[in-house]
Specification:
120 residues, 5 helices, single chain, Arc Repressor Mutant, subunit A, mainly alpha
């Protein structure tokens, strides 16, 4: 029988979704921080932000030396299989995941969850 190597380079969440969720979490996040969190170059992160802006998923306004982003409400998934559904639920799920929680994935914004966990 032939040995099949596991494909380990794919993830369930694309960098486009990850960056959009990070922008929703922090509308004034820097490209440098987006890139670092995703393991990308600043150029690649900038290209993703431009993709999202061009497709209407976010707007960007310059405020002084910083960009201020706004995620466009009501936007739909791009793939026809999910195309009738808004991306808001996915984004809010991703925003609620605490990036520092690691494998446990405990939501950082769910105080009730943390309180229940602390008090049994």
């Amino acid at each position: 029988m032939e040995s099949v190597e596991a494909r380990t380079s794919w993830t369930f969440v694309t960098n486009h979704a990850r960056i959009l969720a990070m922008i929703l979490r922090d509308p004034e996040i820097r490209l440098r921080d987006l890139a670092g969190s995703c393991g990308l170059t600043e150029r690649a992160a900038g290209a993703i932000v431009r993709d999202l802006e061009t497709a209407g998923y976010l707007t960007r306004v310059r405020r002084g030396r910083r960009n201020h982003y706004q995620v466009t409400p009501g936007t739909l998934f791009r793939h026809p299989a999910e195309g009738r559904h808004e991306i808001a639920n996915l984004l809010h799920l991703l925003v609620g995941l605490d990036p520092r929680a690691g494998a446990t994935g405990h939501p950082s914004t769910d105080g009730e969850y943390r309180e229940r966990e602390q008090h049994g």
